[in-house]
């Protein structure tokens, strides 16, 4: 009787294992990994966006640098000539320098914020284009899952080079 129960239990376990096993005709899921950092650093659209931003903001950057140099010269002249000025002239010049410094700081801050905003806009355009390319590759090459950024990815599943090539 014990032998019959043991044989029945063994058959039940074997049958349940076979029921849960994947069919032999079904392939393992195909997974790919893309490094978004490499896409944003090495892709042709990202390099073009960086160049575009540099051209777009070069003139304002030069203007701010020119204003900084003029302020520095004016402040240095005040430091040298301040003791020879009357108190009224010295106070007036100090107020003017302080106002110019605040104005310059506002201009620099506005420039940095606008440049950062434009940079984010351009990055989003590059990411959207890269995502479209990634989806096209996934469909064409029958990927089941593509992950952007992973803690670790084997070079075997890294498809960043394919994406970079397709983005050219």
Approximate strand percentage: under 5%
**The biggest beta sheet, please?**
2 strands, parallel
Tell me the strand order in the biggest sheet: 1-2
Number of strands: 2
Average pLDDT rating: 85
The Rg value, from CA coordinates, equals 33 Å
Shape: rod-shaped
Full CATH superfamily name: Skp domain
Helix content: over 70%
In summary, what is this structure?
By secondary structure, the protein is mainly alpha-helical. It has helices at about 1-20, 35-40, 45-80, 85-140, 160-165; strands at about 30-35, 145-150.
For the structure shown, list the relevant keywords.
168 residues, mainly alpha, Protein Binding, DinI Protein, Chain A, two-stranded parallel sheet, 5 helices, disordered N terminus
Structural write-up:
By secondary structure, the protein is mainly α. The protein has a single domain, classed as Protein Binding, DinI Protein, Chain A. The chain has helices at 2-20, 36-42, 44-81, 87-140, 160-167, and strands at 31-34, 145-148. Strands 1-2 form a two-stranded parallel ribbon. Helix 2 packs across helix 3, helix 3 packs antiparallel against helix 4 (87-140) and helix 4 packs across helix 5 (160-167). Mean pLDDT is 85; it is low at 1-22.
Secondary-structure map:
Layout: H1 2-20, E1 31-34, H2 36-42, H3 44-81, H4 87-140, E2 145-148, H5 160-167
Parallel strand pairs: 1-2
């Amino acid at each position: 009787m014990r032998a019959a129960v043991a044989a029945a239990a063994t058959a039940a376990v074997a049958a349940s294992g076979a029921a849960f096993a994947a069919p032999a005709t079904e392939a393992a899921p195909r997974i790919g990994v893309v490094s978004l950092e490499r896409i944003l650093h090495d892709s042709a659209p990202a390099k073009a966006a960086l160049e575009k931003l540099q051209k777009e903001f070069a003139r304002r950057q030069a203007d701010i640098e020119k204003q900084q140099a003029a302020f520095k010269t004016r402040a240095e002249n005040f430091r040298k000539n301040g003791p020879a000025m009357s108190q009224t002239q010295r106070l007036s010049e100090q107020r003017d320098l302080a106002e110019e410094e605040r104005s310059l700081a506002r201009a620099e801050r506005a420039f940095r914020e606008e440049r950062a905003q434009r940079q984010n806009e351009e990055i989003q355009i590059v990411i959207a284009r890269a995502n479209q390319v990634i989806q096209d590759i996934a469909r064409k090459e029958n990927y089941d899952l593509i992950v952007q950024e992973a803690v670790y990815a084997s070079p075997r599943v890294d498809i960043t080079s394919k994406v970079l090539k397709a983005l050219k």
